[in-house]
Amino acid sequence: IPVDPFVLTVFGATGDLARRKLLPALFHRDLAGQLPQRASIIGASRRVMSRGQFLDFARQALVDHVPATELSGPELQRFLDRLNYVVLDAEGDEGWRDLAELVAPQSDLIHVHYLATAPSLFQPICERLSRHGMAAGNARLVVEKPIGKNLESARLVNAAIGAVFPEDRVYRIDHYLGKETVQNLMALRFANALFEPLWNSGHIDHVQITVAESLGVEERAGYYDTAGAMRDMVQNHLLQLLCLVAMEPPASLDADAVRDEKLKVLRALKPIDELNAGQLTVRGQYRAGASRGGAVPGYLEELGSTDSATETFVAVKAEVANWRWASVPFYLRTGKRLASRVSEIVIGFRPVPHSMFMPAAGPVSPNRLVVRLQPDEGVKLWLMIKDPGPGGIRLSLVPLDMSFAEAFNVRNPDAYERLLLDVVRGNQTLFMRRDEVEAAWRWVDPILEAWRATSERPKPYTAGTWGPSAAIALIERDGRTWLDDG
Ligand code: BG6
């Protein structure tokens, strides 16, 4: 079903996000017949180029990021015909009148302003949108992380945005919320009667959330060195996943109903600060090693520096201090240049209270539910079953395995496809509200401060491994292990 007609302006249109994600996502939705005839896209950037040159840039972006079979039909030209380009200075006057003139004849449509720019440009762009009459009731603002680099700066960014756009027209993207399996977590929890009665400290022993990447920081080292894994991944993606696991059932899928529940989780996170950061957190930085069979450089070499204390790996033992989750650890871990690219959530259930099978049948392992985000999205429920055969009873832990690719046989849409159309639909459920972002910083800030206050460096780990040995010790101290294989 096509969405309502819209004009989408991408600020920073010649950047990496537009090239790798936004243009391919819009093209895929066009291919699926979801863009109405009058939908158009305006690229805006400082880079001087003609419309023709921008079209070439967009065509190349699609060639690079869309399978060739999808580019062979007339849809490619139809998509390119929707594009326009404006040279614009986000902090000056150039180009703003041109942009206003381009969108003015479309005043009856939904206007989406997508800021795929450095965060320092959010305020100047918002001010100019307002000054040139492009922030009125039909205009929506989309911003990408990072929203600030601590609570104080996030508040300033949010205030600058809020001075022009009311909260119900602001869409803060966390692209993890657009991932299919992440939404499936809500379906799994709230559309099945099976799990919710067990979803608490009475039956769940612990939760693991892993977002492991095999790539290093590569050409993003400049940005990354000012952020680190805590700001880049934990403050947003991992905490959002934690919220979806831990939140109370919202009364509806209404944006504020869901976001209210996530906010309560963020506010219930037990503080980690100077006193306990040493026991509850581990940070690491990769050294040269091997990845997928080839030698890869260390972080400092990629950065071109001999000195940086920026973490490329974080493990945290978090706790949600409320009635449902009291004393259930949430082990979070994320890092670059780890052994493989795996993102998954593991719900570890408590063992049975008594085993009648011991000792001959072997030990009874606790059940676990694994929601795998990537690669090969799916859900696995590990159960104890009897090994087949006429002998005595022997038990094995075996997965009930549901792979989305096999079950549905469809292409898994990129998170941005879903999220971009949700903006046009006016659905904020999968976007972060201002108070959520700020609550996440309120928990992260004291950890960052504790790290800054110590003279300890991030622990080195070899590229291509599962991170520093201290991260393994963090969970093994509690008699548990990281589950790397689902
Ligand atoms: C981004 C981070 O938000 O998420 C990157 O800035 C990271 O550092 C990326 O690589 C991971 O996203 P995905 O969808 O590839 O898991």
Description:
- It is globular, with a radius of gyration of 24 Å.
- A 9-stranded mixed β-sheet has the order 16-15-14-13-7-12-11-8-18, sandwiched between helices. Strands 3-2-1-4-5-6-17 form a 7-stranded mixed β-sheet, with helices on both faces. A two-stranded antiparallel ribbon has the order 9-10.
- Helix 1 (16-31) packs across helix 2, helix 8 (221-246) crosses helix 14 (434-453) and helix 9 (255-268) runs parallel beside helix 14 (434-453).
- With 486 residues, the chain is an alpha/beta fold.
- Helices cover 35% and strands 22% of the residues.
- Pfam families: G6PD_C, G6PD_N.
- Substrate binds at residues 175, 179, 213, 232, 336.
- Its EC number is 1.1.1.49.
- NADP(+) binds at residues 12-19, 46, 145.
Task: Compile the SSE list and pairings.
Layout: E1 6-11, H1 16-31, E2 40-45, H2 51-65, H3 75-81, E3 83-87, H4 96-103, E4 110-115, H5 122-131, E5 139-144, H6 151-162, E6 170-173, H7 180-190, E7 204-212, H8 221-246, H9 255-268, H10 277-280, E8 281-287, E9 289-291, E10 294-296, H11 299-303, E11 313-319, E12 329-335, E13 342-349, E14 368-374, E15 378-386, E16 395-403, H12 404-408, H13 415-425, E17 431-432, H14 434-453, E18 459-462, H15 469-476
Parallel strand pairs: 1-2, 1-4, 2-3, 4-5, 5-6, 7-12, 8-18
Antiparallel strand pairs: 6-17, 7-13, 8-11, 9-10, 11-12, 13-14, 14-15, 15-16
Helix pairs in contact: 1-2, 1-13, 6-14, 8-9, 8-14, 9-14
The structure holds 6-O-phosphono-beta-D-glucopyranose (BG6).
The site of 6-O-phosphono-beta-D-glucopyranose (BG6) has 2 residues, from loops.
Keywords: Carbohydrate metabolism, Glucose metabolism, NADP, Oxidoreductase
Organism: Oleomonas cavernae
Pathway: Carbohydrate degradation; pentose phosphate pathway; D-ribulose 5-phosphate from D-glucose 6-phosphate (oxidative stage): step 1/3
